Amino acid sequence: MASDDTLAVYQGERHVGWLYDTQPLRFEYAPEWLEYSEAVSLSPSMPLSQQVHAGDNVLAYFENLLPEGDLRHHLGLRHHTTTVFGLLKAIGGDTASGFTLLSPGESPAPPHYRPIRWETVAEHLQQRQRGPLFSQQGEEARISLAGAQNKLLLINSSV
């Protein structure tokens, strides 16, 4: 089922379905996801079923996983694509939805975290800096939070 025109959608290590680069965009749930007792639909407009979902509902859901404004324009130029599918293929490895979109042959990687002191976070935010504090040197950025505003993902390991 997988090809260059397909992205596999995962939640954690569980395969959820496939997004197809067609006109209009299509999404199909994987049979194993439909059988999973804790499966959820991506969106109320794309209910869990064997039906292939296509059109505006699919486009709206996946487009909302992407950044907006200048950042989206910059990413389109950088990755030589302006389509929702092309941008998700380039940067959608981890989304705010909790679902991961990967090219065929890729597998979800376990999350990795770096310890950081709250004081360092506060100082960084006060100075409105961007860069090495919150990203690994040399890593290719994969945008995970949609929207026009800058965002920062943190996890408190002491909870």
The overall pLDDT, averaged over residues, is: 80
Beta strand %: 5-15%
Q: Number of helix segments?
A: 5
Question: SSE string, helix = H, strand = E?
Answer: EEEHEHHHEH
How much helix, percentage-wise, in residues? Answer: 25-40%
| End-to-end CA span | 41 Å
Largest sheet: 5 strands, antiparallel
Describe this entry's structure for a reader.
This protein is of the alpha+beta class. It has one domain (about 1-105, about 115-159). Helices cover about 25% and strands about 15% of the residues. It contains five helices and five strands; from the N terminus they run E-E-E-H-E-H-H-H-E-H. Strands 4-3-2-1-5 form a five-stranded antiparallel beta sheet. The N and C termini lie far apart (about 40 Å). The model is unreliable at about 130-140 (pLDDT under 50).
Q: What order do the helices and strands come in, and which of them pair?
A:
Elements: E1 6-11, E2 14-20, E3 26-29, H1 31-35, E4 53-54, H2 56-63, H3 69-79, H4 84-91, E5 99-102, H5 118-126
Antiparallel strand pairs: 1-2, 1-5, 2-3, 3-4
Offer a concise description of the structure.
With 159 residues, the chain is of the alpha+beta class. It has one domain (1-105, 114-159). It has helices at residues 31-35, 56-63, 69-79, 84-91, 118-126, and strands at 6-11, 14-20, 26-29, 53-54, 99-102.
